[in-house]
Design brief:
mainly alpha; Fumarase C, Chain B, domain 1; 16 helices; 59% helix
Length: 446
């Protein structure tokens, strides 16, 4: 079944090539296609294109289809082109001619646009829940190890004192910043394209504000051409947000790999978190963190891939957009798995105590020595030269005490402020709007 069928037989090779992976990928969109159809038929009834009894019958069957999707029983049959066609086929089998009325005032273009928007909203909700969990682990670890010093590095050279509290907290705040970028992506997705049809609107007197409200959107894409052009652009912006988050996860995983190696020895991993070597019995490899790093680096390439498909297209719809789905839709599972695994593994990290007592780290305190001389009234440049001479002569004896008090330093981590930064951003997503809207749509008796 094809929604565009005109009783013309399509070449089988052409059909296989053009359908691509749509049947497989559209299963990810099925729930949202049904929810969008429920909102659409309520609107169609309001403008007289469906009778109350027709709307009720369609509504009931759509709720049943939604249940089959949730229970993972929904399938797109052989010979059916996509999820939109499958839903309409099921309705037509049950309701006859009434089932065929559901496509009035819609195009597959705005249907898939809507499905992707709803899919993105839900997936970003899941990601923020995962990030919130990881954030809490990092803040707790930061508080727990706030006084455990480690060397800080610049150019991979020993630089200045740091701490595990500072290190864990740095990634917590980075996640809070990542959520600000994610919020921008969510707001782009939180706009209703339904009613743009094939990109030029409809001669039916549709009520786009009604479907906007029914689906819990913050607003709509008002201009119908712009609504159509949001296909690709929305995925591109969302991929940048995912890439930013993936960058934080990758960098942290890389740090853990470095800190865990014998040359550093800043932390250890439980044996059950590591893998071995086929010939070296002593090996304990941090494979989980290496894979997180690689998977997140791959995710960071996604915006570039979408750019190369989308960026030079004219206004209006092109089938090129189908190719974006193949990389874009599965990426959410990939990044959620990375977040979950990093959360699980980081919780098991055991930092090493008394790291800076090793003589190879004595110069990490050189800046502390300079600053103490400055506090005694010696000009900074002269103090710098004095300590430099001591290091050159081999007479430098570090004072290993550290007293940093300013905001965001070793002695004043500002974890409460960082937590507030995260919480204030999370409140702005207003996920409850979509959740309440979906609940209401599925209560067809009312």
């Amino acid at each position: 079944m094809k929604l565009w069928d005109k009783d013309i037989q399509t070449d089988k090779l052409i059909e296989q090539f053009t359908v691509g992976k749509d049947r497989e990928l559209d299963l990810l969109l099925a729930r949202y296609d049904v929810l969008g159809s429920i909102a659409h038929i309520i609107m169609l009834e309001s403008i007289g294109l469906l009778s109350a009894s027709e709307r009720l019958a369609l509504h009931r069957e759509l709720v049943n289809i939604h249940a089959s999707v949730v229970q993972e029983e929904f399938q797109i049959q052989d010979g059916v082109e996509d999820v939109h066609s499958q839903v309409e086929l099921l309705l037509t089998r049950k309701l006859g001619e009434t089932g065929k009325k559901i496509h009035a005032a819609r195009s597959r273009n705005d249907q898939v646009l809507l499905d992707i928007k709803l899919f993105i909203r839900e997936e970003l909700h899941r990601i923020t829940e995962g990030v919130t969990g990881l954030f809490k682990i990092l803040i707790d670890k930061s508080d727990q190890y706030r006084h455990l010093l480690i060397p800080g590095y610049s150019h991979l050279q020993v630089a200045m004192p740091s701490s595990f509290g500072l290190w864990f907290g740095s990634y917590a705040e980075s996640l809070a910043e990542d959520m600000q970028i994610m919020l921008a992506a969510y707001r782009i997705a939180d706009q209703n394209p339904l009613g743009s049809a094939a990109g030029y609107g409809s001669s039916f007197p549709i009520n786009r504000q009604m479907t906007t409200d029914l689906l819990g959107f913050e607003t709509m894409h008002y201009n119908v051409i712009n609504a159509q052009m949001s296909r690709g652009k929305t995925e591109r912006i969302t991929s940048y947000a995912l890439s930013t988050l993936a960058g934080t996860l990758s960098k942290m995983a890389g740090d853990i790999c470095l800190f865990n190696c014998q040359n550093f020895g800043f932390l250890s991993l439980p044996d059950k978190f590591t893998t071995g070597s086929s010939i070296m019995p002593h090996k304990k490899n941090p494979d989980v963190f290496e894979l997180i790093r690689a998977k997140c680096n791959k995710i960071q390439a996604l915006p570039n891939e979408i750019d190369h498909i989308w960026i030079n297209l004219n206004s209006g719809y092109f089938r090129d957009m189908q190719v974006i789905k193949e990389s874009f839709l599965p990426v959410f599972v990939e990044i959620r798995n990375c977040i979950g695994m990093l959360s699980y593994a980081v919780a098991g990290i055991v930092p090493t105590a008394d790291i800076l007592s090793d003589s190879k780290y004595q110069y990490v305190f050189s800046v502390e020595a300079v600053n103490k001389l400055v506090q005694q009234g010696i000009p900074f440049r002269e103090a710098y030269k004095q300590v430099s001479r001591q290091i050159s002569e081999g007479s430098f004896q570090p004072d290993r005490s550290v007293n940093h008090t300013h905001e965001g330093s070793i002695g004043n981590l500002c974890n409460n402020e960082i937590t507030q930064k995260m919480e204030s951003t999370l409140k702005l997503f207003r996920f409850e709007n979509k959740d309440k809207a979906y609940h209401n749509l599925l209560m067809f008796e009312k």
